[in-house]
Amino acid sequence: MLDLTERDEATLNGAFGEGAALAMRIVIATAHVMKARSLVDISSAHIDGCLYHGAVSLDFVERFVASGARVAVPTTLNVGSLDLIHPELFRGKADTARAAKRLMDAHLELGCEASFTCAPYQLEHRPRRGEQIAWAESNAIVFANSVLGARTSRYGDFLDLAAAITGRVPYAGLHVTENRAARLVLEAPRFADSSRRDACFAALGFILGQTAGATIAAITGLPSDTTEDELKCLGAAAASSGAVALFHAVGITPEAATLDAALQGGKPERTVAVSEADLLAVHRQWNQARPDSALAAISLGTPHFSVDEFHKLAALFDAYTGPLRCDFYVNTSRFVLWQIEKEGLAQRLSARGVQIVVDTCTYITPIMKQINGLVMTNSGKWAHYAPSNIGVSVAFGSMSECVRSAFEGRVCIDEAAG
Which of 262, 271, 121, 283 is nearest to 205 (CA)? Predict the structure, then answer.
């Protein structure tokens, strides 16, 4: 039996408008499926549904707009299907662009923030440990739960917007403390080569997703200086290859000061040791390059590039002279772009041939000028989805290998990692 508050009942009965009533019906139906006994307030939401997938995407949001509904909590938006700052980059059909822009605008009419990023955790305000939130977008979900210690279940299109409008979600799943205990232990290998650490974290994340599925894992053995960007990389790959919404990095993430804390005093159902050879196998699986294969493009920033990653990229560029030998794309958010523009970093990279893309991502939107040939990335998520999404062949390497390859015009990776 689901226990509703007086306000929940009033919302359901139309006291706050037709749109809010519809949203509450969706939330309640979900609560019944999840066998929740009550709903809980959320402090923020992140909406994945502003990516245009066809008329149904727009029809759903337009119904709320027509009803006069507004989001009840601070709500950020995931990527759309257009770079609204650089609309000239879109290489698709004009009618698709119009519908995609309308969908993005419609969410703004509901009171959402024009963030258009898959990495809302890089924005100025982000949830704290223990905060109840409703986030969609797989990498954002796993980052919020794992790295920030906030609490969200996996919310997808339509349900995410319903949660934002009502400010309520089922008190079930990862909102509940006992459901956040690790049941699997994943032992990470030593990451010996610091120049390839980003590639190693991506591969480990892919293995985590394949191994864990939806089971919560505690990862042991990660370097003590592991960064948020590396955890971002790991989580995004894990959420792509499996249904991972939360992992615990022992000694690093908020709920895993110790392995026992991550397990909440329980015993693991199994322990899996990952070897360097396992990471190498993933690198080879993602790598469709042959020796000295020609490059069509480089694509970085899936999930969106951070300010720190831009600084690393600029330092790598400083080691080379001469022109790039292929197109070079970096996906990021408006918020990060504004920061690096203030530093003059965006202008420096642009002068070297880097195309910065915001509001969207190159693996879901037709932006790249050339996709015949290999596109190289250091992102496990991009490598996993791009071949089926946009029909490209992928080469995979670290950020440093991507930069070197761009200046040489061919895939350059450590032979041992190939």
Answer: 283
Closest by CA position to 133, among listed 115, 152, 114, 149: 152
CATH 2.60.40.1520 fits 288-411, yes or no: no
List the structure tokens of 136.
């969609």
The DSSP code sequence of 149-197 is --B-----TTHHHHHHHHTEEES-GGGSGGGG---EEEEPPP---GGGH
Strand partners, 45: 75, 134
- Looking at the chain, how many residues does it have? 418
CATH class in words for 6-178: alpha beta
Question: Model pTM?
Answer: 0.96
The Cα–Cα gap between 194 and 343 comes to 27
Tokens of 192: 């010996």
**What tens digit of pLDDT does each residue of 224-269 get?**
999 999 999 999 999 999 999 999 999 999 999 999 999 999 999 9
Burial label for 239, CB within 10 Å (0-12, 13-18, 19+), is: buried
